[in-house]
Amino acid sequence: MPSQRRVKVFALLAALAVLSFIYLSSAGSSTRSSAFYTSTSSALNAKHQEALDLENHQKIQEVHEAAEKQKEAANIRDPDLAAVPGQKKSVAGRKIIKGEKGLKDDGVAKVGNTGAKPTQAADADDESEEEHKVETELNAILKKSPIIIFSKSYCPYSKKAKAILLEQYNIVPAPYVEELDLHPLGPQLQAALLKTTGRRTVPNVLINGKSIGGGDDIASLHEDDKLVAQIKELGGKRIMEVTKAPPKAAVNFRS
């Protein structure tokens, strides 16, 4: 059984512990309610809120900058369409306003919609009167028949192609022959054909605006019995008839 003295010591220690707890609790409470604690806490909260506002502002600014970059990239890819909404350019470089008459595709090959296309169309303001005249003339020639033979009257290779297509086949409508050496715009038309078909030399045989080659190419298709199929495939509905003509005496083509 503990002695009386030990009991008193334990009681004294317990009293001291209780008093210490009460003191510390009241001191902490008074500290939290003090003006210094309150002002310090408010300042810290304000700094934290300011940091959050700054972070949100930076995020919003980044989103706007990304949107501006996307808009600039779209303008660079197609500056003409970006400059004027609803406006587009024609294949020959002249501007076409939405709703302009005569824009329907009539199925006839035109300059700029066949063969190799230029990487950059000339602006309408820079297009010369002569270029426009050549384009108009070439489009008019392409409408004369599904098959156009661009030729030169003195060229032996042109004579070979014309003899095969005009004498050894029945083609309806008949191929149309354009002698470039007799045309007032012959050199310009030949240059335009280089741009649209990738071929400058004559003869240059076009079916619906697509070049199938020159004299040797036509002779090869003829000898391989593939010319009729080629004409039907490229001519489509514009070719009403294509058959071999009755046999004639053998023709010896000399270059």
What is the CATH fold-level name of the domain at 124-244?
Glutaredoxin
Structural class, by secondary structure, is alpha+beta
The largest beta-sheet arranges its strands as 5-3-6-7
CATH architecture of the domain at 124-244: 3-Layer(aba) Sandwich
Beta-strand residue fraction: 5-15%
Note the quaternary state here.
single chain
What overall form do the CA principal axes indicate?
Answer: rod-shaped
CATH class group of the domain at 124-244? Alpha Beta
Regions with little confidence, pLDDT below 50 for 5+ residues = 78-105
Largest sheet: 4 strands, mixed
The CATH fourth-level homologous superfamily of the domain at 124-244: Glutaredoxin
Q: What is the radius of gyration computed over CA atoms, rounded to a whole number of angstroms?
A: 45 Å
Count of β-strands: 8
Mean pLDDT: 77
Helix content class = 40-55%
Termini separation (Å)? 140 Å
The number of helical elements comes to 8
Notes on the structure:
Keywords: Signal. It comes from Aureobasidium pullulans EXF-150. This is Glutaredoxin. Residues 107-130 are annotated as: Disordered. One of its GO terms (molecular function) is glutathione-disulfide reductase (NADPH) activity. The chain is α+β, with helices and mostly antiparallel strands. It has a domain at 124-244: 3-Layer(aba) Sandwich (Glutaredoxin), CATH 3.40.30. Helices cover 52% and strands 12% of the residues. It has eight helices and eight strands; from the N terminus they run αααββαβαββαββααβ. It has a four-stranded mixed sheet with strand order 5-3-6-7. The protein has a two-stranded antiparallel ribbon with strand order 1-2. A two-stranded antiparallel sheet has the order 4-8. The longest helix has 43 residues, at 35-77.
